[in-house]
Design goal:
heterodimer, A: alpha/beta, Rossmann fold, six-stranded mixed sheet, four-stranded antiparallel sheet, B: ABC transporter involved in vitamin B12 uptake, BtuC, two-stranded antiparallel sheet, 2 strands
Chain lengths: 235, 288
Amino acid sequence: MSDLLTLTSLDAHYGDFQALYGLDLSVSEGEVIAIIGANGAGKTTLMRSISGLLKNRAEAVHYRGQPIGAMRADQVAALGIALVPEGRQLFPSLSVEENLLIGGKTGRKGPWSLGAVYDLFPILQERRTQASTSLSGGQQQMVAIGRALMANPDLILFDEISLGLAPVIIRQIYEALPGIVGQGMTAMIVEQDITKALSVSSRVYCLQEGRVALEGRTDDVTHDQITAAYFGVEA
Amino acid sequence: MIEWSGAIVQGVLLGGLYALFAAGLSLIFGVMRLVNIAHGDLIILAAYLGLSTTVMLGVHPFVALLIVMPVMAGIGYVLQRGVLNRTLGPDILPPLLVTFGLSVIIQNALLETYTADPRKLSGGAIDTASLDLGGITVGVLPLVTFGIAVAVIAGLQFVFYRTALGRGFRAVSDNQDIAQLMGLNKAHVFGVAMALALAVVAIAGVLLGMRTSFDPAIGGGRLIFGFEAVIIGGLGNLWGTLAGGVILGVAQTIGAKIDPGFQILAGHIAFLVVLAVRPNGLFPRVAH
């Protein structure tokens, strides 16, 4: 099987604090993977490790067979991995359109352009000259997703895309997801809302205290297994 | 009455030079939150590079800029990537200490190379040429300096708000991690910002050297004028920096009109008054 992304006994540290312990994980081309787990389980750390914001052993992360664990984030981005960060993190000094344009900085070719993002989220075209901070939370999330898409990534990482958003907005964003990953993109979705995450993914990893507690096909894992892996108690 | 309006016009034009001192300082602080204590000495370094170029090639100082600007930009890029990037982090003290050390090094290197004798860049006829504007006599060189200052600030403003490069500057300034995720290498972006700032320093240094005599020790004073112009105008606002330079220049020339020994002090007093009344400067960019 040809893996797009492989993590091999990944340990991640923040100073003296270890956040991930010997994590093994693999993602095949075209798959949508859900990463679930309680607060502090290491989900965001995992995203930071893959995207290069957190440096690791080079051999701990392989992308298309290439060791990328020790690369800088801009080098990882150039290879085609994009992150929609937790809390959106738009650039406040940039307008909506400038935020999107900066996402295209890597210059990678593909289906996504300003026009394609505006087709996906028409409201952003109306608001394109506004400061990104003046948008509602949901619209900001659309900008954050559009900004990541502008890089035409092969692998897109979504970190907590529904956090802090109204249910109706969350539904809109999840309705847009198939249109995004349908373009042959591989995706990893970190989500607190387990039901949502499982509904769009084919495989799931559940993290618990920095370790993989459960891994399986979304259709195969049972509710009890997830509860046990999530909370660390036998159900 | 005409004497006073004359002093004000001279002050406004002098403000153009101060704005040029300040523009690079403002740019560096705006993009990478780096306070460059060596800025004044870099201005003097540029003046000496202008001197060497004019002497060796026998060209006009303005022509020398064609060499001094790229050389200073190159120094800026190498300095940023080789030294200053290593000092940037959550602690603001290391860059202050390192640029202070750099200031001492530049001063002493200039002293070794060029001695302490005051030097001047000769611009030929433009040095003494003047225009009569309705009874007020205005030097052509200060007028040209002011015009260049406006052009430089307009240019920087354009780069900052209308180009992909400026978008990168603003993005890195907003959030270094996320900018890096977008494929911007902050080490390179910072290098380019310093290169741009020192290209402006090159212009400031050569114009300073044509206006007055200079020696290796006067960098500190130029740094203070630059700082004052930035703070009066408000951090992060380039047009505000021009206004700050003008206010400082006018205060100095009016002070000199009252008593020649009062020139520098009057500038500092104007600065303190602005700081007391509007601690964020007159035109701070809206905080976010």
